[in-house]
């Protein structure tokens, strides 16, 4: 009796995919074969050697019972790990914590200068500045005339003090000449807009309505002359 035969259609797989599957299977076979050979290779350093009790007794320096072989193996493994950790720690300490001898030349001295010779800064005091002068419309600081006269008085007082006794007359003459030149320069200095406006305001107060500047000057000059005659 014959059974009917069935024909199974192969899946539609490309030649490239079929070759890739074949290569994977062959690679898996070679890997298993190499692992099997490696277990039987006595020269493989990754394989653990099977020592006899006699060899352990020689290494441990005394007889070992059969039940103590596992303890001896564990103890030797712990000793090897401890020695390996010590060597690794010592190597890290020597390599990582040691500084090169030339490190000092890269260091910078960042200490601040706290000596008494350091330049000092005087804080800005707006109240005192207003007492000693004022700011005009252009933002220029103008010193009060009173304070300037006081400074000139202090200067003159210094000239009259006993300290000038040690200075010869020629030096005093040069100082006084220089002071007079500075005073003359200050008098000839151009007037500021604020000073000009102040002078115009004072002049307008002395003028009559509809009067010109020339007429006002003549009137004031005539009045001052009559005052002298009176």
UniProtKB/TrEMBL annotation:
Organism from which the protein derives: Polytomella parva
Name recorded for this polypeptide: GYF domain-containing protein
GO cellular component: a single term: U5 snRNP
Lineage: Eukaryota, Viridiplantae, Chlorophyta, core chlorophytes, Chlorophyceae
Biased composition (Basic and acidic residues): 25-42, 82-92
Disordered as annotated region, ranges: 25-125
């Amino acid at each position: 009796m014959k059974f009917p035969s069935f024909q199974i259609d192969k899946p539609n797989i490309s030649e490239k995919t079929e070759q890739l599957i074949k290569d994977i299977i062959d690679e898996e076979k070679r890997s298993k074969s190499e692992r099997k050979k490696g277990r039987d290779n006595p020269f493989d350093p990754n394989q653990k050697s099977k020592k006899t009790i006699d060899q352990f007794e020689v290494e441990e320096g005394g007889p070992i019972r059969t039940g103590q072989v596992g303890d001896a193996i564990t103890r030797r493994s712990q000793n090897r790990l401890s020695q390996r950790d010590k060597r690794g720690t010592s190597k890290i300490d020597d390599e990582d914590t040691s500084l090169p001898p030339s490190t000092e030349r890269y260091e910078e001295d960042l200490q601040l200068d706290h000596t008494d010779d350091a330049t000092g800064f005087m804080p800005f005091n707006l109240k005192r500045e207003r007492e000693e002068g004022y700011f005009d419309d252009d933002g220029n600081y103008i010193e009060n005339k009173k304070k300037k006269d006081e400074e000139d008085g202090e200067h003159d007082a210094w000239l009259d003090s006993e300290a000038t006794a040690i200075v010869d007359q020629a030096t005093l003459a040069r100082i006084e000449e220089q002071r007079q030149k500075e005073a003359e320069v200050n008098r000839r200095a151009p007037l500021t807009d604020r000073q000009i406006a102040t002078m115009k305001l004072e002049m307008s107060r002395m003028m009559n309505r509809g009067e010109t500047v020339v007429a006002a000057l003549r009137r004031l000059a005539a009045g001052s002359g009559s005052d002298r005659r009176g």
